[in-house]
């Protein structure tokens, strides 16, 4: 199953509040690497230059990340976020041409408050 199929339908799960709640509640559990990837995609999503087709895939990937119900439930210790990381990495690979240096910089600046 490719990432587009995996995240299909999860667009409805994404919300600004849900995203920030998830980020702040799991950063200590999942580590800064996963959170940084989610933040990069978030900043690509917020960029007005990002095409709607790219935004649709990001909504699905971030919706998958914040959804409590996915392929491997997040409550399972250690492996619970492995599928989320895989979806975020695959999405970033698909959308690499839409990721700007400024998105990466914003993600690093945002994550500093939790990971220093």
List the helices and strands and how they pair.
Layout: H1 3-7, H2 16-30, H3 32-46, H4 52-66, H5 82-94, H6 101-115
Helix pairs in contact: 2-3, 2-4, 3-4, 3-5, 3-6, 4-5
Account of the protein in words:
There is one protein chain. This protein is mostly helical and 116 residues long. It has one domain. It is 67% helix and 0% strand. The chain has 6 helices and no strands. Helix 3 packs across helix 5. The longest helix is centred in the N-terminal third of the chain and has 15 residues. It is globular and about 35 Å long. It starts with a helix and ends with a helix. The model has no long low-confidence stretch (mean pLDDT 85).
Task: Write a short abstract of this structure.
With 116 residues, the chain is an all-alpha fold.
C-alpha geometry: globular
Q: How many H/I helical runs?
A: 6
Number of domains: 1
| Low-confidence spans | none
Residue-averaged pLDDT: 85
Major sheet description = none
Radius of gyration: 13 Å
């Amino acid at each position: 199953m490719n990432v587009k199929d995996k995240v299909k339908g999860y667009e409805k799960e994404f919300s600004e509040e849900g995203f920030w709640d998830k980020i702040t509640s799991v950063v200590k559990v999942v580590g800064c690497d996963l959170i940084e990837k989610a933040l990069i995609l978030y900043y690509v999503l917020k960029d007005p230059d990002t095409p709607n087709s790219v935004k649709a895939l990001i909504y699905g990937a971030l919706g998958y990340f914040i959804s409590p119900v996915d392929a491997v439930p997040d409550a399972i210790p250690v492996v619970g976020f492995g599928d989320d990381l895989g979806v975020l990495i695959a999405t970033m690979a698909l959308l690499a041409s839409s990721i700007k240096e400024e998105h990466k910089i914003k993600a690093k600046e945002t994550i500093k408050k939790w990971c220093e």
